[in-house]
């Protein structure tokens, strides 16, 4: 268990280093994600405990960002002023992204002709 | 008594209890997107802060251990990606192209439309990562000079919209490829989309969580490049 937790923090630490020292503008945690992905690709070993730890963390993600969401308490004026813009932009963007992603995927699958038999209807 | 309102123990207890209550309501609603525990618990905690005249900075400091866990949690997203490496290899081209197209659409449309409303730069920076999962959006937003709290709320709202509209829209359009449906909902509506996709179809769910995790990377890479060159 400890080794799995340590692995996550080592990756995060490397991410933190690359972020600060190399000035990579990606968030440290996302760099850490890429480092862990690389590690998994190189090591190619079953890591049941890593699955347990990361699964537990992912399952409780929403609790972890409650304090940040509460920060809205200071955003009253911004929300009052741009609330409609935020709602319109987010709604349209969400629907548009969904349609573009689904269309491109289907178009490429048809063009390349791969996996058509796997379509589960 | 006043000292109590600055302790971690007190605010962690409040946050966990309120969240647990919200989570029970959410379960009872069959995990309806509008009853997401964060949406239910945030206003309650804001009300408690107002009643007790507690500044947000005090609350944020007292509960910082929760935010701290976001770092390793995001790193852990590598595990579900790696578990689906075979899917990615089989469908490398469609997944890559759909993902990039979706990520660019999400950024450009959200920032473009919001700028029509005359929103300032900090607000545009908060909406730019709106298609990524919430913790990544908050960190990317602050990287770009935005407001993490705004980013969190925008992302949650996008999740609700995506989770509620995807199934009716895809059915109406007659799209039956659950791989495409899952990927699209994961790219645009992150965890909310993935949760909904798993309720509809296991293939859709697998592709949705893949879309969510990969989009967290792609969107951040795109935004970082934009930030470097602008």
From TrEMBL, chain A:
InterPro entries recorded: LrgA/CidA
Keyword Iron: no
Subcellular location: Cell membrane
GO cellular component, one term: plasma membrane
Protein name: CidA/LrgA family protein
Keyword annotations: Cell membrane, Membrane, Transmembrane, Transmembrane helix
Transmembrane regions: 27-43, 55-73, 79-105
Entry membrane topology: Multi-pass membrane protein
Lineage: Bacteria, Pseudomonadati, Pseudomonadota, Alphaproteobacteria, Acetobacterales
UniProtKB/TrEMBL annotation, chain B:
Topology in the lipid bilayer: Multi-pass membrane protein
Coiled-coil annotated residue ranges, if any: none
Keyword entries, A-Z: Membrane, Transmembrane, Transmembrane helix
Superkingdom to which the source organism belongs: Bacteria
Compartments in which it is found: Membrane
InterPro entries in the cross-refs: CidB/LrgB (IPR007300)
Any one GO cellular component localisation term in the record: membrane
Main location: membrane
Extent of the signal sequence: none
Keyword Membrane assigned: yes
Transmembrane segment boundaries: 6-22, 34-53, 59-83, 95-117, 149-170, 182-200, 206-229
Transmembrane helix found in the keyword field: yes
Name by which UniProt lists this protein: LrgB family protein
Species classification: Bacteria, Pseudomonadati, Pseudomonadota, Alphaproteobacteria, Acetobacterales
């Amino acid at each position: 268990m400890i080794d799995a937790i340590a692995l996550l923090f080592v990756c995060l630490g490397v991410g933190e280093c690359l972020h600060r020292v190399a000035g990579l503008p990606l968030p440290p945690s996302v760099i850490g994600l890429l480092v862990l992905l690389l590690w998994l690709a190189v090591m190619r070993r079953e890591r049941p405990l890593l699955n347990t730890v990361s699964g537990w963390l992912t399952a409780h993600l929403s609790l972890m960002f409650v304090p940040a969401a509460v920060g809205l308490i200071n955003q009253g004026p911004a929300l009052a002023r741009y609330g409609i813009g935020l709602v319109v932009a987010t709604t349209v963007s969400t629907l548009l992204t969904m349609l573009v992603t689904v269309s491109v995927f289907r178009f490429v699958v048809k063009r390349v002709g791969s996996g058509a038999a796997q379509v589960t209807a | 008594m006043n000292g109590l309102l600055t302790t971690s123990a007190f605010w962690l207890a409040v946050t966990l209890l309120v969240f647990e209550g919200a989570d029970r309501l959410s379960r009872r609603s069959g995990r309806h997107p509008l009853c997401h525990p964060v949406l239910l618990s945030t206003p309650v905690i804001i009300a408690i802060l107002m009643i007790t005249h507690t500044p947000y900075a005090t609350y944020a400091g007292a509960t910082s251990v929760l935010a701290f866990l976001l770092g390793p949690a995001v790193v852990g997203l590598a595990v579900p990606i790696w578990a689906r490496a075979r899917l990615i290899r089989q469908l490398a081209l469609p997944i890559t192209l759909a993902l990039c197209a979706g990520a660019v659409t999400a950024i450009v449309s959200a920032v473009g439309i919001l700028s029509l409303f005359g929103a300032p730069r900090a607000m545009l920076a908060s909406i730019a990562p709106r298609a990524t999962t919430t913790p990544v959006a908050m960190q990317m937003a602050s990287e770009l000079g935005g407001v993490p709290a705004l980013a969190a709320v925008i992302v949650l709202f996008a999740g609700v919209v995506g989770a509620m509209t995807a199934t009716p829209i895809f059915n109406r359009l007659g799209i039956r490829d659950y791989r495409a449906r899952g990927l699209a909902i994961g790219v645009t509506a992150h965890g909310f989309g993935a949760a909904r996709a798993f309720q509809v179809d296991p293939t859709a769910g697998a592709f949705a969580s893949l879309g969510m995790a990969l989009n967290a990377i792609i969107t951040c890479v795109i935004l970082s490049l934009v930030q470097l060159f602008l």
